[in-house]
Specification:
- By secondary structure, the protein is an alpha/beta fold.
- It has 7 domains: 57 residues, NADH-quinone oxidoreductase subunit E (Arc Repressor Mutant, subunit A, Orthogonal Bundle); 83 residues, Glutaredoxin, CATH 3.40.30.10; 90 residues, 3-Layer(aba) Sandwich (Glutaredoxin), CATH 3.40.30.10; 206 residues, NADH-ubiquinone oxidoreductase 51kDa subunit (Rossmann fold), CATH 3.40.50; 88 residues, Ubiquitin-like (UB roll) (Roll); 87 residues, NADH-ubiquinone oxidoreductase 51kDa subunit, iron-sulphur binding domain (de novo design (two linked rop proteins)), CATH 1.20.1440.230; 59 residues, 2-Layer Sandwich (Alpha-Beta Plaits).
- The protein has 32 helices and 21 strands.
- The strands form 6 sheets. A 5-stranded mixed sheet has the order 14-13-17-15-16, sandwiched between helices.
- A hairpin with a 5-residue loop joins strand 13 and strand 14.
- Helix 3 packs across helix 4.
- 45% of the residues are buried.
Amino acid sequence: MTEFKSGVDLSLMEGVLRQYQDDDTSLIMILQQAQSIYGYLPQEVIYHVAERTGNSPAKVMGVATFYSYFRLKPMGTYQIMLCDGTACHVNGSERIRTAISQELGIANGETTEDGMFTLNEVACLGCCSLAPVMMINGETYGNLTPEKAIKILRKLRQRESGEGIRILVGQGSCGVSAGATRVAKVIAGHKTATDSFTVETTGCIGMCYLEPIVDIYQGDTLLHRLVKVTETDALGIVQAVRKNDFSKLEAMFISDEDARFLKKQKRVALRHCGVVNPTSIDDYINHQGYQALDKALRMEPEAVIEEIKVSGLAGRGGAGFPTWFKWDAARKAEGEHKHLICNADEGDPGAFMDRAVIESDPHTLIEGMLIGAYAIGASDMYVYIRAEYPLAVERLSKAIEQARSRGLLGENILGTGFSCDLNIKIGAGAFVCGEGSALTSSIEGKRGMPRVKPPRTIEHGLWGKPTVLNNVETFANVPLIIRNGVDWYRHIGTEKSPGTKAFALTGNVVNTGLIEVPMGTTVREVIFDIGGGIPDGKKFKAVQIGGPSGGATTASDEHLDLPLDFDSLKSIGAMIGSGGLVVMDEDTCMVETARFFMRFTQNESCGKCVPCREGTKRMLEILDRIIANEGSLEDLDLLQELSKTISETALCGLGQSACKPVQSTLRHFRQDYLRHVVDHHCPICNGRKRRLVIKPELCKGCGKCKRNCPMEAISGEIRMPHTIDNEKCIHCGACWGACPFGAIDAIEEE
């Protein structure tokens, strides 16, 4: 065989040649797929196809040169097909060709020196009613004039060089709910054929409190970030772009204070959120997408696992378990059939990190999962996602279709012989299905009930086969680790907890939204530097970390300066968990907070094991009694005892961690409990030295307040003014909310 030195990777043809090895009529189809792979037909490929198909090089070259579809030279990024059919010829296609040739400096069949454009005349494009016509990379442009053709080419060159204006409208769930989709539609509606800017969809940048957000880019450079944009602002935005004068938009510019929201962050898992178009695989690829997969597939699977091991990547779903350990154990497990699952059942109240990643950057998840599947030897993958995330499901489904169409899912991925596909499984609203064994049962169509372990899911998982489960954020880290190397990754975060962590920052904080910070960032930095502190000048009291499985920190310097990492939080009885950060101010009763999470856990208990089913029910009853100011000091001891028992004996991890909110609040906010069980009066729950009165001039005697009072503290006849007995009143506010006439008022006591 003739030797060549151009470096063409002939291994990419193996899958194609195997597919048609027994078909003597397949030469044209083989050449079509070869051109699809390489962009043209290199001589090396011509000779290789000839040798493998048993044809002479002359025959293969003869076929390649006979058909106008085939190209023997590299093509430009933009392939111009200029129609020279009868209708186009009559309407001036020759003038169009002359203008294009002069603009680009190339003749028919040539490619520009920068490799951007290739010009080819074709007999007919079949769009005669639009003559003269040209097609560029599958997009048709009709009714051309020389001026219009040149403008189109310059626009494409401008876009490629990064000089074009792009208007990006954030359309994650928060943005959509705030009206971003309508804003984008109106902006696009004002765009005319002469406008060169583009209007593009992107995901969530994380500043939920400022939605809808519109970013104006020139190439990859952010020119202006506009916040709280409305439909009425759309025309002004378009006019500003046309004139390159944004002075009239200053009222929408993000403030310096709000811009600080992103400055202390380090985006790894969220790197593309608010940057790429989540509906475009090309945009993802243009941002180095799937490069890590290509690199990983050229490594041995064991080498990929070793990279993850050295990186120190731990599971971001809550437990912080070493990712490599699961992968290694699954690879070594007996049996050829193995499964990889992404747990996107983000059921914690106050957490939305996984949703944002899938809505904003679905291809990152796919790429990370493919690398994991290759490492463990899995041939199929599943994403188990909440039914409450319809936008995430929609965008992930589209991304999967796009990846399949590019040969990135399915058979013989990137010509390496590795085959793997991805399916979506939608949950049906059970918090417990976030637990591994319950999740696999749900995928199998059964009740999502945790099972006794061992065996672990790694050994006996989906349909009894070795199965690895990681969450969305964990997989989102994988491509960057593989692409940039472990040294790059380990320089982020701390020695024991390298990398970053994404958090959903909510509650009584000025700047709510999605953030990502290096491991080791303090609670103080997150709440006050990124979050902007507590609104209305109120005092910070606590932050609940990790949702129903986490614990609360206090306003002490010790806790505020606590690093957010796996080990530090465990020392105070908290945990990172899924990553929800709910900030609470001085007006929050931590007993009520503990009750809220206990009610959630009790409602979501699968009921399989007695400690969780009955224990959480008893704890909720005690907390209800304490909130009603009917508890005792003995109840606090009983809560401690029950918490310990449940934590040690519950079947699954969710049940074992269910008592953490109660345990941490008893430990750090005992005074809140004592107000209820000793003073029998909580200034937060029962009012701050105020008494409720019913204004006789406003009261109509409807009786709604009386019927809603849990303490029977309200008396009065129908259609007559009612009164409140403040000796019985616990200031729960039930009457206040029930009165349709605004007759109930609170009076400050001396």
